[in-house]
Automatic annotation (TrEMBL), chain A:
Keywords recorded for this protein, A-Z: Endoplasmic reticulum, Glycoprotein, Membrane, Signal, Transmembrane, Transmembrane helix
SUPFAM superfamilies listed in its UniProt record: Zn-dependent exopeptidases
Its membrane topology: Single-pass membrane protein
Lineage: Eukaryota, Metazoa, Ecdysozoa, Arthropoda, Hexapoda
Official protein name in the record: BOS complex subunit NCLN
The organism of origin for this protein: Diatraea saccharalis
TrEMBL record, chain B:
Predominant place of localization: membrane
Organism name: Diatraea saccharalis
InterPro entries referenced in this protein's UniProt entry, alphabetically: TMEM147
Family recorded in the similarity comment: Belongs to the TMEM147 family.
Record protein name field: BOS complex subunit TMEM147
Keyword Transmembrane helix annotated: yes
Amino acid sequence: MWLDEADGFAEIFKGYLPYYLLVALPIFIIMSPVNPVAASHEFSVYRMQQYDLHTVPHGCRSSSFNLEGRSLTSWSTSRHCVVARVQDITIDQFMEIRSKAGALLLVLPKNDTVLSPEEKEHIQLLEMAMIQQEVSAPVYFTQWTPEYDDILQDLQHSFITDDKSGTALEAMLNSVSSNGYQIVVSAPTPQKIDSKPVTIHGKLVGRSGSPQTIVIAAHYDSLGVAPDLSYGADSNASGAVAVLELARIFSRLYSSASTRGGPSLLFVLTATGHSLNYFSIKKWLEEHLDSADASLLQDVSFAMCLDSISSSGPLRMHVSKPPKAGGAPHSIKERAGVPFTHKKINLADETLAWHHERFSIRRITAFTLSSLQSHKDPSRSSVLDSYSEASLKNLVSNIGSIARALASHIYNLTDEASSEDRDLYDQALGIEEVSVKHWFKYLSSQSRAPHVITTGSTPLSGVAAALERALSRYMDVTANVHTVDKREPEYTLYSPTRAVVYVYSVKPAVFDLILTVAIVAYLTVIYFAIQFFPKFYEEYAKLVTGKVKVH
Amino acid sequence: MTLYHFGNCLALLYAPYHMAYKFSGVSEYATFSKCVYAGGLYIFTQLCKMLLLATFFPDSDIQTSGEYNVFLEILKATVDFADLLGLYFALNAVPGKGHAKILTAAIGWASAEALVSRAVPLWVGARGSEFSWRYVGMCAAANLALVHTAAAAALVWLAGRSDLPRRLAPAHAALLALTPYRAPLEAAAGALLRLPADAPALLLLRAAHAAARALAALAMYAAL
């Protein structure tokens, strides 16, 4: 029976086991996974924009980090990841973090409605400042969740710094009671992604004999500080929706010979807008103007670009040359009753100001209609730019006035004399609110950053495919796929755009030492308790039974 | 958290067992093999209990809705009477005086329990980046398990004695009958006091419970 020999067995244990353990334990430790436990918090995070424009780098340049989390006030070195609410961080603080901190994790507000106008403006300005330059540290954005409140609270109030506590005891207590956080993002290193923007255009042919063409263009991408968060409702889902709605209205008018207007209408939807210097419209113009048969863009009367037409405020005509009286832009301006803003094209700037400048450079009369005062308005490149009922209302009324002005220009009506005429007019140019709302919601419900919409497996996928289908209901549609120059890329986009952050709650190293001391003290107590147990038993037995027991 | 933290937990978990074996005088009886035997009996008993549970409560693992079914928990705890039977066999296998029997069986039994049921969670959990008080609490609770096992072993041993004073018999029977239900009892007390599951106060409560049981068992042992 092996149990009878087990004393020898025990000898084996005593003699050799420690040496086996010396070999086996390191092997166990090496073999077992490095990080066997899941973090208590896991969130999806969205990486800041990264792109090169004419080889000038913009945005965040790296993606992975594994650093200790700190609040805005307590971080000090590049070994810290700053965690903050996006509305709390100032631009100066960001600049300091940009140059010194290890990483930045910004929590977006709970929802847009809780923000005051000042806070909104602050966030938009911050976004602009962030995107202007390159950031070498990883910067991530994340949607608000209740857990972030706890994490931010912990980081704010119980940060573990040894120099800020009054006494050593205080520091020790602080280190035991406080929670630290280790913040880990492991994402692939940033890589160039192949971008193939698509320009969709369709033509409504006017009465024969009038070769004039009116171009109506808008870009359908959006710009925000993080590609996966740029829903861009105003800039520029509104413009794209307006192009679709105008296409619907005029396709009905152009379908019968009696109501067909003189000039042809060319509707153009381009994939890349102000963020990438209107690259696709530039390529598209090159293709159609410089090719042998330039029939599409022969004799363009004017090009009307629609950009951000759903924010509050009256429409405004942005031109690079003041409209001459008698010219087509002037006629539209008068008929729409909008003021104009004149801004010369500045080729020295990194990006052009407005969409129409691409046309103006190619000597095509062009203007942009927008409800923004200036092309520098920070709301054009914000993650806060999202769908709202109020903007839908503005959009519908603006599309209405644009359609009216355009129709009045095409049919050359001087004024709407009688109310009967006006009714007829309203009927013909009626805006289908439901379809506008549907498209506006659809476009602003998803991220349309160039990183997302121009990098699909096939060029015509996602939003571009949807727009193409929508436009092809009214006319024949052509989709042009542009490619970036191989040797001197006009722009380069980088992945990844999103990742997962693991937030581990950790304790400082000194905590483990304190724990060791506590455990040693506990074991010492146990040791003496065992040593004194016979004595205790004697006393206890005397107490219980009233007589002396011999152990 | 780190390997160092794992070492801390390990020391907290196993050092008291080692000290109990080394310094209580049990080791002088050269009873290491008996401890191993008690440990083997523990594992065998657990297998039998698992068979019972799997046969009569097959859905207990599936039920993860968080609903605390009191009746089911009590029924499941009833199966722990098998532990007492196992302890009885372990006690019988150890020769010697009463206290040596009790300590050897209890240390072997509780060590096997600590090794089998705590080592793996500790290895997986305490070494990760995430810090949690749970593992420190678990190690401290394992020390209490040793006290509980010793008390249970003493009670089982006393049950086989005919010289237990008559007036103590009802109290002894009650204590013995309550032994398997200590986990539900502690959970109920924690729920009554509205303590969260990993509060240090709950650990203190369990320590008090263990101390009370141990002192009661000791009093009966002393009364022989």
